[in-house]
């Protein structure tokens, strides 16, 4: 397990039962999250579930992978969330010739001071929008591993911290599409949640033609919150109470994926941490200062499905990771909700 995850686990143990967020803190989370969702829904037609998952991942301090066929609004969703936050935003268009140094930065010799100086790359922002991430080579994709896990970048032996909050919003096309490289398992595991946009309904597509036909609604979108407020909200979400029985439920679910005969790769310990954090954010958006099993169940597929690898038999049977998780949710014992 990476050191960062060990630190997070030790923090949970040392802190013990942290005080739950106050009513005022929860009200702030609800108010700002509602404003975020309303603003995003005004641009992203007919996809409230995808918008809600994106906001949950933001409050859980996670990264988002938006995967689907071209033209369904993946980049628009990422750009809309970034535009709603008054914070530093950088966009990276991933291409086969993109270099790791374009992302992380590079040390350049300065003739005036006769020494090397570091020039930050695109990763140095609060929100990084990575468009079509799986069109870059595996070497370039791996440049994101350290920054996504530890919120830092190491170049030429020197480590640089990234700004907080820090979030990567990446889009990718299905691997069957031309010119794509598969994301390594280690990188998929660093994304807290995967969102599949899907095609809009006929009514939503008609509304889109009305609103987007004459221009982009992004042009009129204004930030509804800032980086400082998001940081305070993240801290409030961290304090949402999760009982020992609830944490055991999360572990039981991830353990079940590792022993399932339908899977050849189950969920990692990092996935357990991400599932708990996402469940806390889901509970906070419901106005609760404690997590219920319903929160865990709601976030299981977005958080776990993209990390799982099916066996050949499961693929031949046309089963998806979501199908396997639905079966496991039926089998794993649900604890009684307690505080």
UniProtKB/TrEMBL annotation:
Cited SUPFAM superfamilies: P-loop containing nucleoside triphosphate hydrolases
Biased composition (Basic and acidic residues): 1-18
Keyword terms of this UniProt record: ATP-binding, Nucleotide-binding
InterPro entries tied to this protein: ATPase_AAA-3, CbbQ/NirQ/NorQ/GpvN, ChlI/MoxR_AAA_lid, P-loop_NTPase
UniProt GO molecular function: ATP binding; ATP hydrolysis activity
Family named by the database record: Belongs to the MoxR family.
Protein name: ATPase
Annotated ATPase AAA-3 domain residues: 63-192
Region (Disordered): 1-22
């Amino acid at each position: 397990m990476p050191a960062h995850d060990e630190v997070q686990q030790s923090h949970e143990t040392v802190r013990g039962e942290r005080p739950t967020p106050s009513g005022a803190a929860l009200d702030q989370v609800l108010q700002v999250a509602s404003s975020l969702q309303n603003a995003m829904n005004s641009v992203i037609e007919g996809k409230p579930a995808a918008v809600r998952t994106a906001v949950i991942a933001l409050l859980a301090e996670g990264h988002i992978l938006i995967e689907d066929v071209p033209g369904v609004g993946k980049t628009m969703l990422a750009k809309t969330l970034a535009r709603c936050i008054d914070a530093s935003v950088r966009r990276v268009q991933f291409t086969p010739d993109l270099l790791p140094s374009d992302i992380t930065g590079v040390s350049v010799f300065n003739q005036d001071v006769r020494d090397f100086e570091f020039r930050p790359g695109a990763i140095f922002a609060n929100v990084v929008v990575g468009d079509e991430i799986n069109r870059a080579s595996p070497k370039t994709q791996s440049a994101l591993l350290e920054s996504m896990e530890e919120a830092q970048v190491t170049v030429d032996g020197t480590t640089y911290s990234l700004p907080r909050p820090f979030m990567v919003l990446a889009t990718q096309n299905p691997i069957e599409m031309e010119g794509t490289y598969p994301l390594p398992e280690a990188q998929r595991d660093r994304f807290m949640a995967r969102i599949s946009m899907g095609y809009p309904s006929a009514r939503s597509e008609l509304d889109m033609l009305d609103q987007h036909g004459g221009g982009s609604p992004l042009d009129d979108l204004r930030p509804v919150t800032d980086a400082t407020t998001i940081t305070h909200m993240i801290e409030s979400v961290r304090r949402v109470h999760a009982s020992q029985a609830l944490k055991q439920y999360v572990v039981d679910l991830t353990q079940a994926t590792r022993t399932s005969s339908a899977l050849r790769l189950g969920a990692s310990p990092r996935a357990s941490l991400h599932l708990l954090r996402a469940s806390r954010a889901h509970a906070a958006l419901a106005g609760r200062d404690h997590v219920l099993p319903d929160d865990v169940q709601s976030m299981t597929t977005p958080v776990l499905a993209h990390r799982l690898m099916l066996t050949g038999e499961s693929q031949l049977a046309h089963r998806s990771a979501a199908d396997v998780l639905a079966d496991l949710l039926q089998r794993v014992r649900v604890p009684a909700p307690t505080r």
